[in-house]
């Protein structure tokens, strides 16, 4: 494999970042309107830019990169509109990107004129490869270019109101730059801008191209922070890309290595394989009990806006936001999720602990209903969960097994997913309202001369004929079993019985589950629902008998 050479590791035997944890949210900066926009097949229209900007403000971003006004007339006009129409909240700072070239810097300052606060983000590429192949320039020439840009910005900022301009510098392609050289050029820029602990400069160390594993990036950040003399007067910022698929991990480890600030986009939109996904990184923090200082409680709406503005779909498996990320098809997973929810409800537990779920879907505006979906790979737990979520029925274990076999047959035959409403409808038609030859219209107790037993009269319709029948036994269920056997020869034995209230309160609906065995040895469940538990129980018994009658002899 002579074509590819491994990235050299950083010699840092006393590295400290592996022993640190993230214990606070970073400063967040959205670059959706610049980095994200330039990566689109169809760049955003002004209307879409305004909608996305307002969404970013609602989420809680306090720093938003709004464009590269010197390189795009559309960006220039957009920045002017934000300022002239007073659309920038008092607590939000806009950021504008510019290369280290005087004409571009001058036009950038024209774009931000009148803004209360702005971050002017200066950059030039510093990597060994870019210096050799693109610019064909020496280290000294690249540093001179950065210094000239910094001096131009300082000169133009002097004419602005005090505090209106903040500085940011990026040695672009930092990951491919020698650490000592990155420190040298950043210190040269800071010598021009003269940051202080109360007026800090942002030094952005981008993984413009992800060249190595995330731990190497963390080593680079820690080593840079150790060597960089004005560290206490600067904010160390990260801007990771996702070339190796580990942009989020690189940013998380970079925070542990000493960074203070994160630049990224919603759902990771960006050039090539994309930028850091701020949604995922922020919600990762949230699942660890940290307030990310960004509000994703209505993630569905945020996703709608992002998809509309970028014309890019969020993948079904995108963490937190994808359609399927709170969905379990596996039977064992479904069963564990169902039991996790049940355990939390039983104990009124505040801490979220449900197997296979790292976050409560409700916290980001998702619903419990689609957490479990059913296909041919599913099991009884998932099927039971959907019945409970749709109908409120808490199925006993043997009924869970029986009904999952009914659903399994459907999914095997169709080869498709069966949705929650279909599961509920099939349960009702199978156990609550099966095809009926037998109907019970009313019942009433009558005098019984046998001690410890009861006698009832039942009004029924069987195969279209109405009649009153009587029977006695240990309660109404036993009495009905005897009455229907003696009058019509319909025999069955009650094997199992369960009941529960649908909710608290004296007028709550009750549900009864009855398992009977027919003379042919068939074990069949019936389910009844009524405010009277006695009526619910009799309905369940009649449903079970009707199921037996519907089976061909």
Structural overview:
The chain is an alpha/beta fold. It folds into three domains: 279 residues, Aldolase class I (TIM Barrel), CATH 3.20.20; 97 residues, Orthogonal Bundle (Helix Hairpins), CATH 1.10.287.1400; 113 residues, 2-Layer Sandwich (Double Stranded RNA Binding Domain). It is built from 17 helices and 14 strands. The strands form three sheets. It has an eight-stranded parallel beta barrel, surrounded by eight helices. A three-stranded antiparallel beta sheet has the order 9-10-11. It has a three-stranded antiparallel beta sheet with strand order 12-13-14. The mean pLDDT is 93.
Percent range for β-strand residues: 15-25%
Under CATH, the topology of the largest domain can be stated as: TIM Barrel
CATH class of the largest domain: Alpha Beta
From the alpha carbons, calculate the radius of gyration and give it in angstroms.
Answer: 34 Å
| Largest sheet report | 8 strands, parallel, barrel
Could you report the average pLDDT, rounded to the nearest whole number? Answer: 93
Distance between the termini: 72 Å
What structural category arises from helix and sheet content?
A: alpha/beta
CATH superfamily of the largest domain: Aldolase class I
Tell me which CATH architecture of the largest domain applies here: Alpha-Beta Barrel
Shape: elongated
Q: Which runs of at least 5 residues are low in confidence (pLDDT < 50)?
A: none
Assembly context of the chains: single chain
How many helix segments? 17
Helix amount: 25-40%
């Amino acid at each position: 494999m002579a074509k590819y050479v491994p990235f050299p590791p950083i010699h840092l035997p006393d590295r400290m970042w592996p022993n640190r944890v993230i214990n606070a949210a970073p400063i967040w900066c959205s670059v959706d309107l610049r980095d994200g926009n330039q990566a689109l097949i169809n760049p955003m229209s002004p209307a879409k830019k305004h909608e996305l900007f307002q969404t970013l403000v609602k989420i809680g971003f306090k720093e938003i990169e709004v464009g590269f006004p010197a390189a795009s007339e559309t960006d220039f006009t957009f920045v002017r509109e934000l300022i002239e129409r007073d659309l920038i909240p008092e607590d939000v700072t806009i950021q504008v990107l510019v290369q280290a070239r005087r004409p571009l810097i001058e036009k950038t300052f024209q774009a931000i004129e009148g803004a209360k606060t702005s971050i002017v983000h200066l950059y030039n590429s510093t990597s060994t490869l870019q210096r050799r192949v693109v610019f064909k320039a020496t280290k000294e020439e690249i540093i001179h270019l950065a210094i000239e840009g910094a001096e131009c910005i300082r000169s133009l900022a002097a004419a602005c109101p005090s505090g209106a301009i903040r500085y940011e510098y990026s040695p672009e392609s930092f990951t491919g730059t020698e650490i000592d050289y990155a420190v040298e050029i950043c210190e040269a820029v800071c010598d021009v801008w003269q940051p202080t602990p109360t007026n800090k400069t942002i030094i952005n160390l981008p993984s413009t191209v992800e060249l190595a594993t995330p731990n190497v990036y963390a080593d680079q950040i820690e080593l840079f922070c150790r060597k960089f003399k004005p560290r206490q007067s600067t904010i160390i910022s990260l801007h990771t890309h996702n070339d190796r698929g580990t942009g989020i991990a690189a940013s998380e480890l970079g925070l542990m290595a000493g960074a203070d600030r994160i630049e990224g986009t919603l759902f990771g939109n960006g050039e090539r394989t994309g930028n850091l996904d701020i949604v995922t990184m922020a919600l990762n923090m949230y699942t660890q009990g940290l307030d990310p200082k960004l509000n994703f409680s209505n993630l569905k709406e945020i996703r709608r806006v992002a998809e509309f503005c970028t014309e890019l779909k969020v993948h079904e498996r995108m963490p937190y936001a994808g359609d399927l990320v709170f969905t379990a098809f596996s039977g064992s997973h479904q069963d564990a999720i169902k039991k996790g929810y049940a355990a939390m409800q039983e104990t009124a537990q505040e801490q979220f602990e449900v197997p296979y779920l790292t976050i409560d879907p409700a916290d980001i505006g998702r619903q419990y209903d689609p957490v479990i979906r059913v296909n041919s790979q599913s099991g009884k737990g998932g099927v039971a969960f959907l019945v409970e979520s749709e109908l409120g029925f808490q199925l006993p274990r043997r009924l869970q097994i029986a009904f999952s076999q009914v659903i399994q047959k459907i999914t095997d035959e169709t080869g498709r997913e069966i949705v929650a409403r279909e599961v509920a409808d099939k349960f009702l038609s199978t156990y609550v309202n099966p095809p009926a030859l037998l109907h019970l219209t009313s019942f009433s107790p009558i005098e019984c001369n046998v001690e410890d037993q009861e006698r009832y009269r039942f009004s029924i319709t069987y195969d279209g004929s109405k009649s009153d029948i009587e029977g006695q036994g240990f309660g109404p269920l036993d009495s009905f079993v005897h009455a229907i056997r003696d009058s019509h020869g319909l025999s069955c034995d009650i094997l199992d019985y369960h009941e529960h209230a649908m909710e608290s309160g004296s007028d709550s609906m009750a549900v009864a589950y009855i398992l009977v065995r027919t003379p042919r040895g068939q074990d069949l469940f019936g389910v009844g629902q009524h405010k009277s538990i006695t009526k619910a129980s009799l309905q369940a018994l009649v449903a079970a008998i009707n199921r037996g009658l519907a089976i061909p002899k």
